[in-house]
Specification:
By secondary structure, the protein is α+β, with helices and mostly antiparallel strands. The chain has one domain (about 5-165): Trna Endonuclease, Chain: A, domain 1 (3-Layer(aba) Sandwich). Helix content is about 30%, strand content about 25%. Strands 1-2-3-7-8 form a 5-stranded mixed beta sheet. A two-stranded antiparallel sheet has the order 4-9. A two-stranded antiparallel ribbon has the order 5-6. The termini are far apart.
Amino acid sequence: MSENEDKADKGKQASIDGFAHEHIVAGILMKKFRNVSLVDLPLSSYDIIIAGKAKNGRTEDIIRVQVKTARKSISFTGGTRGGVDREYKSDVKTYIQSTKTSDVVVGVQPTDNGEYNLYFVPTILVEKWKTKSKSLNKIEILKNNYDFLIRCKDYNYIIKKAEEYKII
């Protein structure tokens, strides 16, 4: 196999992994929160929505979720193509996730035993960090920490807990 074929195969697999991880996360979240849907909008800055009751109990609140494959680190960038369509051109520019584009970035880390760890990173923290990615070792406290997902839009809670956990 040539070097180009090897790169193409790796790119195809990365693309497949990305789509599969979106479905896996949607399934995990659906079992926990019920009203969860993949977003079928190709130019959307998020992959999944979770719809639930707002604090007032009368209206609906939506959490916008961006899914990222995370092996050793989690990327917070969007607007670029990976995999086999890497040369895809559009008017979408690369950006860093923020509270304007999504509410939480979920890093999906496949484990050796076929399970998945989910790192819930509120975009409030991404804006504080001002970085394109973060090592999973530095945000271990966010692994499977559903409080950070549920309260991802609660600025005071997220900042207080992040300071407590020494991640900001």
